[in-house]
Amino acid sequence: AQSVTQPDIHITVSEGASLELRCNYSYGATPYLFWYVQSPGQGLQLLLKYFSGDTLVQGIKGFEAEFKRSQSSFNLRKPSVHWSDAAEYFCAVAPSGGGADGLTFGKGTHLIIQP
Amino acid sequence: KAGVTQTPRYLIKTRGQQVTLSCSPISGHRSVSWYQQTPGQGLQFLFEYFSETQRNKGNFPGRFSGRQFSNSRSEMNVSTLELGDSALYLCASSPSTGTGAYEQYFGPGTRLTVT
User: Given a cut of 80, is residue A28 above it in pLDDT?
Assistant: First the structure.
């Protein structure tokens, strides 16, 4: 069964500093990969996605992510965070060959922005 | 385009009762998926409907059921509510073809509290 690990439950970053959120997946083949963000009391918003091709993908709100097959990772980055980036971030995978389990999500990383 | 809408946003029910939640997908999206989000288990896939048929199902008991109507609107029903069913229930819709089928757009969720 596929699984997603987000090793950091909480991360605190100063406003204006760079950010990297880690995501590792376990799956037999290369899955489709996603990052979502959830603000308090809200649903999930799709930040970016990877299906194939260029391993560096750009998303909304200035976020990017890099797929590294050798490390089974799909880390999310932002060069300079803003206070409005404070939220919960979820990495998710879907089987590229189709499957019965929908998206499989990591447990999430709670991002705190210090002024 | 209007986003995914879910009604009601908040619900309080008593143990043993049943509840029905509603989801209207983005116009043109024919796939609707449901997820349960709890602090302990995180985001878990319940089921997916496409063209009024359940296409995929997660690992939840039969008390959890759903359906989809010809206009792609979906409902999920939980019977004989238990305290552990207290959660945020998220609905997501997606385009039904190719890799678009994996791009899920989430609604704000319905917060269910079982007392």
Answer: no
Q: Which of B76, B104, B105 to mutate to test the interface with A (most CBs of A within 10 A)?
A: B104
**Stretch B32-39: mean pLDDT:** 95
pLDDT at A102 over 90: no
Statement: residue A49 has pLDDT above 60: yes
How does pLDDT run across B50-90, given as a tens digit for each residue?
Answer: 989 998 899 999 999 999 999 999 999 999 999 999 999 99
B104 burial (CB, 10 Å; 0-12 / 13-18 / 19+) is buried
Instruction: Measure the CA dihedral B8/A106/A111/A41, to 10°.
Output: 0
- Of B6, B45, B106, nearest to A44 by CB-CB distance is B106
DSSP string, A27-93: -SS--EEEEEEE-TT--EEEEEEE-SS-SEEE-GGG-EEEEEGGGTEEEEEESS--GGG-EEEEEEE
Q: Which two tokens stand for residue B114?
A: 């079982």
Q: Which residue of A6, A35, A101 is the best one to mutate when testing the B interface, meaning the one whose CB has the most B CBs within 10 A?
A: A101
Backbone angles phi, psi at B89, to 5 degrees: -105, 120
Distances (CA, A) of B100 to A51, B83, B95: 10, 36, 5
| A91 closest CA partner among A4, A3, A1, A9 | A4
